[in-house]
Every structure is written in C-alpha cells, then in structure tokens.
Amino acid sequence: MDAILKHLLKKEILRQKTTINLIASENYASPDVLRFLGSPLTNKYSEGYPGKRYYPGNVYCDKIEKLAQERALKVFRLKAESWGVNVQPYSGSPANLAIYFALLNDRAANAGKGEPKTDILGFSLSSGGHLTHGHKVNFSGKIFRAVQYGVDPKSGLIDYKKLEALAKKHRPKIIVSGATAYPRKIDFRKIGVIAGSVGAYHLADISHIAGLTAAGLHPSPFPHCDVAMTTTHKTLRGPRAAIIFSKRRKMIHNSALMLPDAIDRAVFPGTQGGPHENAVAAMAQALEEASKPAFKNYQKQIVKNAAALAGALKKSGFNLVTGGTDNHLLLIDLKNLGMDGLSAERRLEEAGITANRNAIIGDASPFRPSGIRLGTPAVTTRGMKEKEMKKIAGWIYGILMKKGGSGAIKAEIQKMLKRFPLPY
Ligand SMILES: Cc1ncc(COP(=O)(O)O)c(C=O)c1O
Fold first, then answer.
1. Which of 40, 101, 231, 370 is positioned for an S-S bond with 207, CB 3.0–4.6 A?
2. How far is the CA of 213 from the centre of ligand 1 (A)?
3. Mean local confidence (pLDDT), 315-319
C-alpha cells in the first residue's frame, strides 16, 4: 500500500472518529458495506442489464444486481408488477440526469414548435432544493429549461399555492419534489395532484429522507409520483450510488416506451457505461440491513434526536427555520446573530463538530449564506440519543454564542466521542 495514501487514510479515519458529524447528508456505512465496495467486483465490466450484458463473465454480477433490485423494492414495500427499478446510477446527480433524459426525450421533437416549453419545475437551492433540481449552474438548469419554486419567506414552508400557479403558467414536463435542506414533511400527494393537473411527470427525489420513508416515518411519495429516486449513502447508510424507481406505465409523450424501459435506456447507454458492481453489491448489503427491525428503530432515533437537538437549540435562543423539524435535519438562521454560515461552520469545525453552511431564503451568496444545516443520521449511527443531543446543543451554543476560546468544549467533545465508537 502506498505509504502516503495509507497515512492520509489513517488520518481521515481519525478525523471521522474525533468529530461530531452533523452533516445531514453524511453517514457511516457498515463494515460489510465497505467490504463489498473494496471487493474484486470492482474489476468487472457488466454494461447492460441482468441477462442482457455486453460483456461475458457476468453470471454472478447478474445475480447481485437482481438481488439489489428485489431488496430495493422490498425496503420501500413496492411490487415488481407496478414498479421498475434501476440500481446502476453512479450517484444521485447522474440518476437525475438519466431521469431527465428519459422523460424529456421528446424535447428535440418539440423544439421550435410554438411556445417554448418548460422542462423542469424544481425546488430552488436557496429554499432547500438540490442543484440538480434546475439550478442555473447545474446541467439541470443549463441544458434543460428550468423554473424554480420555493418556500414562503415568512414561514419557511413550501409555498404549494405558488407552486401550483407556476405549474399552470409554465406547464412543465416534470415537477421535481424532494429536498436537500428542508426540515419539514413534504406533501407528495399535493405535488402529485398539481403535476397531474398540468400533465407533468412527478419526480420525487427522496435522497435525504429515504431511510425515514422506508421506516414509515415520512409519508411515502410512491402513490403520488411517476418516478422516485434516492441516493443510497445518506439515511440508507449504503455506498455512494443511487436507485431509480419508475411506474410501469406508458410514457405520455412516447407511446412506444414504458417508463422503466426509458429509464433503463437513459442510464445505460444514455448517460453511463459499465455499472459499478462493487457499489451495487454494497447497496444490496445496505438494503438487507435496512430491511431488519433494528433499522426502523434507528430511523426513529434519528428523528427523535433531531427533535431533541432542535428543542435544546431553540431553548438557548437560536432561531430555527420553520421553528423546528419533523425529519432528520434542522436549519439555524444566523441572521440575527451577526454571523454568517461560513464563520459558524469554521468555528464549529475548529471545536470538533462538522455541519455545513446552508442558504436560507433571501440569501444572495451561496458561499457566505446565513444558515447552518444540522442533521442527526451520523451521530445516531454512533449510538447517541437525546441526552447527547442536549449536550451537543449546549456546546454549539458555547462555540457560537459565547466569547472566548472553545478549549474546554473541545476536550469535553473528545471525551464523549470515546463512548460512541465508529462502526469501523
Ligand atoms: C436531494 C438530493 N438529490 C440529489 C443529490 C445528489 O447526489 P450526489 O451528491 O450523490 O450526486 C443530493 C446530494 O446531496 C441530494 O441531497
């Protein structure tokens, strides 16, 4: 093993061990998931799908991929007769690219005919959406025509009325629901009804809340969407990869293709080459772990921990976007503290807590936004509970609100972390 890399890996593992990780999109994969990721499956090319590969020698990769598909359906309580499933996307962004390609494949045919049509109506980044939901710096806003909906500036909640008005005005081909920094439940039913009323596909991006959804702690998007996707490395504790679920029904704009066939073609050969079968196996392992009763308890604890953290932070005077949380994350609005998200992020990291700065509605600069996002999936994986959340809230208060160094807090953090070892 290369000595420099070995040293850097050792250091990174130590950093993970000695940090309270409140980054809402991160987690610790199990040793078994890591084992499959680092397995010789990485050596294999398997372009195509089980039973229809463009390379020989895929007898075991076929079985692994089918297992991942079956387990993905099982974890979300879906029937193979109703939903197609693709486990090959390299990650969340390539998954969304493939979905857009699949659903917008009549775009070229329509170009130049009459009014320009909107391709995507997505949740804006500054309201809590993801870059791939139509942001202008991302492919989703660069190669597709995107319009954005957002939250009500006062309540911080999704403005469903405005979303409906935008849908009626722009008649998008896809409405994207789902978020990366939204602390409340998303009304997938409402968005599904709006999408239906304008003939749009409803894509639900449940990357953040997949674990909660699987455990029945967040209303399911599946009865109300045409396509759903999720990354597998957040609340699901799997590898960096993604899954796309699509309804087995005819496409509106292309009667020759069913949605799952269009998605499969858009993933391979449309936007990707050979799938990473090591990641697919690691995903199948994570999905097996997610089907156990302990996983439901784990997700429940994530939500309880987020509520405890939010409650304690509020008590000490922090202003939370929407006033709290009902999922795995919360957002502190720092505007009234004369501090921006970047300086808060740096102060916390210096003391041994990682949490990322985040835009809050009305922010102009994504580099210096006025919010900080805190999530509980990773600390819950370490075994922390409400008691520790209250402690962490106190430390955050000490680091951000009190003058002077955080030397004493740093030592207390290290002491506590020793009681909550990483799973590797
Ligand atoms: C809601 C949502 N969708 C998509 C993605 C993209 O995933 P990836 O970073 O794996 O490309 C993310 C990542 O944070 C996300 O939060």
1. 231
2. 16
3. 96
